[in-house]
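Annex B. Sample input.
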Amino acid sequence: MFLIFIGVILIVAGFAINTPALQISTFSRPVKIAGFVAIILGAFSSAVIQIDPGQVGVQALFGSVKERTLPSGLSVVNPLVEVREFDIKTQNYTMSGITDEGNKGGDDAIRALSADGLEVTIDLTVLYRIIPTEAPAIYRELGIDYRDLIVRPIARTRIRDLAANYEAVSLYSSKREEFQNKIFNAIEVDFNKRGLVLEQLLVRNITLPESVRRAIESKINAEQDAQKMEFVLQKEQQEAERKRVEAQGIADYQRIITSTLTKALLEYESIKAQKEIALSPNAKVIITSGKTPVILGGN
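Annex B, continued. Sample output.
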């Protein structure tokens, strides 16, 4: 457009100086030719548009947005149209309580009231993309700041609405996945109406009030102590059972030995032992009166 504007000025100037009384009238024709060349070059450069990969071009002519989008690559368009590129790749919008981590500076976490009246703080990341064919409608109805007009307010509103149906502790533990799925379904419908596709919703962190967090930690510690004590009791019971079985075995052994030992058996075993001693090669003197022998000498 700049070259076209320069060309028009040169042509007007060429006609203006085309007066014989002026000394520079001889330059009228070259100036006109230069103006026409500038217009042609400007029109050609404005008519050929390059759209970058992952983008689509939206055309606007005198405030009227055309429905046909321009794909990535080179396209020939009306030199007078204004082309605005829209990113159709996956984009993310993060709302976090950590400074400089989200799209907004400072603490941008979502604060919502739970069903039991407690305030929970939620960090969220939204992954989304533009539907290419809906880019003209987005440009016409929302402009280029669609993230701040659609993505951010819808996500924050839906989370606050749905968090009111859950207790704070359940959001933090057992109901977290269910909560995330319900948010996804609600936001997906709203995004589709606005020409956006919700690809994924990540509830990155849920922070409970300090008093609730301490109560949960105390409960967890108490449960761990109870489990530890139960383990110690089970171990002691197992040790007591082992000792009881061992004592029962010893008692059974003694009972069996006592019931089988008779006087005749003892005398028989004594005679066998004395015989083995007498037959051993060691020199010895055995004194016995029919009872326990006394051995003198020998090894």
